[in-house]
Design goal:
The complex is a heterodimer of chains A (about 160) and B (about 290). Chain A has about 160 residues and is an alpha+beta fold. Chain A has five helices and five strands. In chain A, a hairpin with a 2-residue loop joins β3 and β4. In chain A, α2 packs across α5. Chain B folds into two domains: about 150 residues, 2-Layer Sandwich (Uridine Diphospho-n-acetylenolpyruvylglucosamine Reductase, domain 3); about 110 residues, Enolase-like, domain 1 (2-Layer Sandwich), CATH 3.30.390.50. Classes of the chains: A alpha+beta (about 160), B alpha+beta (about 290).
Chain lengths: ~160, ~290
Amino acid sequence: MSKHHVSTTINGEPTEFLCEPQLTLLDVLRDELHLTGSKEGCSSGDCGACSVIVDGRLVCSCLMLAVEVEGHAIETIEGLAQGHDLHPLQRKFLEHAALQCGFCTPGLLMATKALLDRNPNPTETETRYWLAGNLCRCTGYDKVIRAVLDAAAELRGE
Amino acid sequence: MLGYTAPLTVEEAVRILAGAPGVAKILSGGTDLLVQLRSGRSKPDLIVDIKKIPGISGIRERDGAFVIGAATPGAVIGECEALQRAWPGMVEAVNLIGSTQVQGRASLAGNLCNASPAADSVPALIAARATCVVAGTTGQREVPVESIATGPGRTSLRAGEFIVEFHLPKRPPRSGDAYLRFIPRTEMDIAVVGAGVSITLDTGGVCTDARVALGAVAPTAILVPEAAAALIGRTLDETALAALDQAARRACKPIDDKRGTIEFRTKVAGVMARRAAVIAYERAGERQ
């Protein structure tokens, strides 16, 4: 099977990989590059557990072929914390107990980062609609929303 | 064995599509195609990624008319203020498709060519009198959006053909459009019924032009000229709205499924058409 050579940037690091055309970005992130923070939930773009940011846009990495990221910049959950310092979003998720099993959390954090990069002061309604594509089956959403709004306030310096 | 290629021009893409042995599939946003690949519903031999063709994604305004590239994702359409001002109904329809994640990828041409009867953008595009430019081995042809889907999952596109761009006409003054859908929740669902309405008024508030299109009530989205005729020559009084409602219901040929019965879909089609018409009328009145 012919493999494609792909050059991309992941969390600021130039990265190259070889992949077969049917592999998704999620397949390559997890199985080739061992970035296993992004999770495979539904493989149909419904659950958001595989959310990553490509060129500033939130996407489901299960709905992109890996060959499509040639020349593009990817942000994954592995790039969120700076060394041992958690990102304010990560800290607020912990403080507000916005997770139980944690499977949806990387996707929720990346989705939230994409929201706050675009809109530092979202309303609760805007936040709920923005996160409608991220499913959580244990905690529910209220704690997540509280964590996001609190993190947004901290990032605004309030 | 699956192949992947990303041509750099429309001509090259046509050549590849027409000459490919086996089944070739166009990839733009991939939000439908990748799900079909995964489930085995689609088993192409070759994927032709059109996103590297210059201009295939993006919105251009030309003398008040808009050209929207086939691969333009929903999020880009939602962020275009000029398009939002001219065609708020079409933009709201596009932005109802899927989640934030899906909006970042899902393309306008993909929503049309996936040929779901419930595709949200399609009734709004039809109401807007949108056309699409189709490229093929014999050159390019411009066809109305309503001529593309022929049934669930089926299109009129011939072998080697694909959509390059959409055209939305210049708006006369006092024009407005709207799209509404019924779903049993508020987000992340498939239309049980969708209705797109576009209206132009004269200075006295009388409707001089109208287009009404319905989704999810027939094998394809449908243009309903009888419903538009109920509005033309009238203000949006109760008589006109009742006639619109009736005409919309009569045009329905829905299926019974878990999302809605034939009876429910038919009734709701009238209600959605009516409500969308009221919003389109208000928007038209605000554009003196």
